[in-house]
UniProtKB/TrEMBL annotation:
Taxon lineage: Bacteria, Bacillati, Actinomycetota, Actinomycetes, Streptosporangiales
GO biological process, one term: formaldehyde catabolic process
Name used for this protein in its record: Mycothiol-dependent formaldehyde dehydrogenase
KW Zinc (keyword) present: yes
One cellular component term from this protein's GO annotations in UniProt: cytosol
């Protein structure tokens, strides 16, 4: 039996998205049918709409989601109808070289649902990041579902499925921030603020937030920034060094994805410090770094892919911290909206008015 539901579709490059009927098949082997409860609006959805990721239109957008399992395929034992889950981009195989070496986030054989969701006329849809959760229901690989405590508000929980996990993981996993560290975060959108929250969780003593907008710096304080620097008015490298006794921060997290901010992060790092790149650059972006500085400063230049997260390890743990009041996931939810308001949410995101707009179903 197929399910007819509403979904947010991007039909062509840059065209406004629209709510249309989507046909979702019953789950086959290895698959799960999920009733979406909430799904955050992310830059990646906008990039899909604008043709910046692939040309496989039409897309079913949405990928930062939490929901309730409605049905599972015949061979699925790890999940059951009624489970409250957070969705992740790809189910890892557990057996490839990366998985076996303990780096499942670089899995070579990760999976999404095999069956296709379609428009009413049978046109196959490409689900954003293998999820497609701006819809009443979606079909995913069972391994894309991670069970978490159902006491969590879906709007807050779903955010762990993408941007907020990327930021928290950049601090906790990639940057390995530890108690007493000084941390600087460049770019205080949803991802940067999540990195700040992660640094606070890890016990960082000093958390320096850098942005070009005062409004963003005010929000950053709510997540744990102890100092703020407006880099449109002040040289951020000099400011970070001054705030760290002349040295630079132990961990600098770049959460913008631009050459100039990467360069600032490079120079704002203490000797033997760590630079974490979590902002996503475009293919054209390049930087030039003096090799002697790379050598002389030591430490590590790292990129953080999806916060180097392991959903089965990190999602339940972070939901528990949230339910204990130690991680304010709800603070990332700037507004809750309906499916019809996704296009308007893209505009708000573009204008920097929100951390996250979240579709609630
Ligand atoms: N210096 C400092 N901050 C900057 C600069 C700059 N030159 N340019 C932009 N910013 C700030 C913006 O003011 C904004 O607060 O960076 C922040 C970016 O936040 P968002 O646009 O909300 O993006 P976010 O969702 O946080 O993602 C940031 O991480 O995962 C990636 O694809 C994502 O590349 C994007 C980045
Ligand atoms: Zn995303
Ligand atoms: Zn694998």
């Amino acid at each position: 039996m197929a399910h007819e539901v509403r979904g947010v579709i991007a039909r062509g490059k840059g065209e406004p998205v629209s709510v249309e009927t989507v046909v979702v098949p019953d789950p086959g082997p290895g698959e799960a049918l999920v009733q979406v409860r909430a799904c955050g609006v992310c830059h990646t959805d906008l990039h899909y709409r604008d043709g910046g990721i692939t040309d496989d239109f039409p897309f079913l957008l949405g990928h930062e989601a939490a929901g309730v399992v409605e049905a599972v395929g015949p061979d699925v034992t790890a999940l059951a109808p009624g489970d409250f889950v957070i969705l992740n981009w790809r189910a890892v195989c557990g057996q490839c070289r990366s998985c076996l070496r303990g780096r499942p986030w670089y899995c070579f054989d990760s999976r999404n649902a095999v069956q296709k969701m379609t428009l009413a006329d049978g046109t196959e849809l490409t689900p954003a990041l293998g999820i497609g959760a701006f819809a009443d229901k979606t079909l995913v690989a069972a391994g894309q579902c991670t069970k978490v405590d159902p006491a969590a508000d879906p709007a807050a929980a779903g955010l762990l499925g993408c941007g907020v996990m990327a930021g928290i993981g950049a601090a906790l996993n990639t940057g390995a921030v530890t108690r007493g560290d000084s941390v600087a975060v460049i770019g205080c959108g949803g991802v940067g603020d999540a990195a700040i929250a992660g640094a606070r969780l890890a016990g960082a003593a000093k958390i320096i937030a850098v942005d070009i907008e005062d409004r963003k710096l005010e929000w950053a304080k709510d997540f744990g920034a102890t100092h703020t620097v407006n880099s449109a008015k002040t040289d951020p490298v000099a400011a970070i060094r001054e705030l760290t006794g002349g040295f630079g921060a132990d961990v600098v997290i770049e959460a913008v994805g631009r050459p100039e901010t990467y360069e600032q992060a490079f120079y704002a790092r203490d000797l033997a410090g760590t630079l974490v790149l979590v902002g996503v650059p475009t293919p054209q972006m390049k930087i030039e770094l003096p090799l002697l500085e790379v050598f002389g400063r030591g430490g590590a230049l790292k990129s953080s892919w999806y916060g180097d997260c392991l959903p089965s390890r990190d999602f339940p743990m972070l939901i528990d911290l949230y339910l204990q009041g130690r991680l304010d996931l709800a603070a990332f939810v700037s507004e809750t909206i309906a499916l019809e308001e996704v296009e308007a949410a893209f505009d708000k995101m573009h204008r920097g008015e929100v951390l996250r707009s979240v579709v609630v179903l």
